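I'll show a typical protein example:
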Amino acid sequence: MIKTLAGSLRQHIKGSILTVCLSILEAGFEIVIPLCMSGLIDYGVERGDMGRVWWYGGALLALALLQLAAGTASARICARASAGFAANLRQDMYDNVQTFSFSNLDKFSTASIVTRLTTDVTNIQNAYQMLLRMAVRGPVMMVFAMAVSFTISREISLVFLAVIVCLAVLLWGIVRGVNPIFGQVFRTYDTLNNVVQENVRGARVVKSFNQEEREMEKFGGISQRIFRDFARGERLLALNTPLMQFFMYACMILISWLGAKAIVAGGNDPALGLTTGGLTALISYAIQILMSLMMLSMVFAMIAISAASGRRVAAVLEERADIANPRHPVRDVPSGDVVFHNVGFRYASKADRQVLDHIDLHFRAGETVGILGGTGSSKSSLVQLIPRLYDVTEGSLTVGGVDVRDYDLTALRSAVAMVLQKNELFSGTIRENLRWGNEDATDQELERACRLVCADEFIQSFPDGYDTRIEQGGTNVSGGQKQRLCIARALLKKPKVLILDDSTSAVDTRTDAAIQKSFAEYLPETTKIIIAQRVSSVQHADQIVVMDGGRVAAVGRHQELLETCGIYREVCQSQQKGARGDD
């Protein structure tokens, strides 16, 4: 995990190293200050030597200013390095997600990815900032303070060792107890984000069914779980401060008592025992050592919180796309000729059942192919193999006579335009959304594509025409309008293969027929694959594929299938009865 996360440091490695060096320097100045204070008391105040007082006073001022300068520079550079590290982590995660195939995306929910990009990265940023400053400054201060303390009084300094051991054991116990709690908290955050996302996207459904109270209760329940887990973790972490204060005051009392005895026994003579200045320095070092432990306990607490976040971020960064370019990819798709040869497919390698089994089909370039079948007959799974959204698990699939696994992914997907069942419009104007298909498309090409799918008329009716703003998810256009805009966007790719996965379901039959006619006239060399629930959408196709349970039940033209395929005939009859019933 650490190695994976460290790969995102890049240009901030120098800043991180400089922060560490400055933190060590800052700690060094702080260690020397009590020694100067001891000299001021023993050689200046106790002896009434004002020259020494001025000399040690000036040294103290210089050390304080140097410590301030080192601390300020360290804090500024550290803030920049940690913020830059977090920015790199977000960018690296987002870039890696863009390479994922559908099978990779199936492993992470949308809400989980959002949580990892936001909350989890922020936790890692805070932990890294504390590591660069406190995790360096704390141990350095503690080690040097211990070393100097032993030079002043070995017997009294043994108190520090006893305190450090006791406190370290207790703090380690707190950290171990907190770690699994915060791991659970961030998993619950995923659930919370998922509920919010579903509620916002489905706001119209929620309101139409009067389910606002139910959704609020669901959100409140999950929010309460986060509160309980966080409160449990924070109760454990809250033990840090009282423990530190107890050991700090106990340590100071012991040092004062032992130090006072040593001063009395030695008569405040440096040659015979401990001096007043030495005792003052020991008390200062006791505070520094305990403050160092306090820093380390805070670092450990933050690490406990961020460790779960680190594992979650590393999981996204380490995920490798199941589908990648071959070593020597083919970069030109010669035609839209599609051949399935004994194709089998399952979503997971260990799945018990094949989604597609023994598929043998041939779609010739320029043909219109209809695909019909009941829910769960794997129609969408079949066409998603063509642009390699998933890879076949058995057999082979060729486009233009070349196995799709041999193509450059960009070249293949540029030649295959696909309008999915749940296609998206993005925030921006209609013109910007259409240019997703071809960013260099002229206004004339945009309008021509929209006329082909009967979208130009309703676009022109908007006050701003093609500059009309589309809200997130396309919520300010109707279902039929959204589908037509998505088809127009696909047409602008000028594809060799056009796949419409139930993409005219929200369009009336007259408009659907007009779109089909436009395809036949203006896209003669493009292979058009149309998945539909309505027989009227595919009855004029060059061939119709009937799917049933992941297998091809029949292939033929409309009239032929009426005579030979019971499934197709049954669908036609039921739709005809429904049409007569509607009349």
Remarks:
- Residues 430 and 466 are 5 Å apart (CA to CA).
- The chain is about 65% helix and 10% strand.
- The two ends are 65 Å apart (CA to CA).
